[in-house]
């Protein structure tokens, strides 16, 4: 007899849960029906000429809003497009390359610029000596991050190093200025004083 009582309790609990689930479904269906009827009543209030979908595009204000959205989106996308075209890496990505992939940082600025301020641990190889420099890393498979004041000279140096077989030669996008803007450490040499 005791087992029968346990079974009855299980069936009662399952039935109660099923009844609650059915009530929830009925409530959701009711909400959907009310929403559908509200939309139908709003559409029926509109004049028949405004219900036509192509009339929407004949309004000059709509075209002005579409144009504003496209221009705004283009302006937001412009920095990303510019960065991708330059092929540079961000200061954060450069730090990641230095820490995780043992990247070598080469500053292609002139010695005076290098002494005035450079990335901590970077080597100075001026752009004029980049193709014949013996200070370049021997392992050509490791990343090389090239830096100058703005990134323009470093781009030329990266192309020269890629021709020499350094496949992972990348430019710090924005140069030393971007590094400083990111509040990353910069050191000066004694020659600057």
Descriptive tags:
7 strands; Oxidized Rhodanese, domain 1; 3 domains; two-stranded antiparallel sheet; single chain; five-stranded parallel β-sheet; 193 residues
- Rough outline: elongated
Instruction: Give the helix tally.
Output: 7
What structural class do you assign from the helix and strand content? Answer: alpha/beta
Rounded to an integer, what's the Rg over CA atoms?
33 Å
* Major sheet: arrangement of strands: 1-6-5-2-4
How many domains, as an integer? 3
The CATH topology of the largest domain is given as Oxidized Rhodanese, domain 1
CATH class of the largest domain: Alpha Beta
CATH architecture annotation of the largest domain: 3-Layer(aba) Sandwich
Strand content: 5-15%
Low-confidence stretches: none
Question: What is the number of strand segments?
Answer: 7
Report helical residue fraction: 55-70%
Termini separation comes to 99 Å
Give a quick account of the main beta sheet: strands, pairing sense, barrel closure: 5 strands, parallel
Mean pLDDT: 81
SSE series: HHHEHEHEEEHEHE
CATH homologous superfamily annotation of the largest domain? Rhodanese-like domain
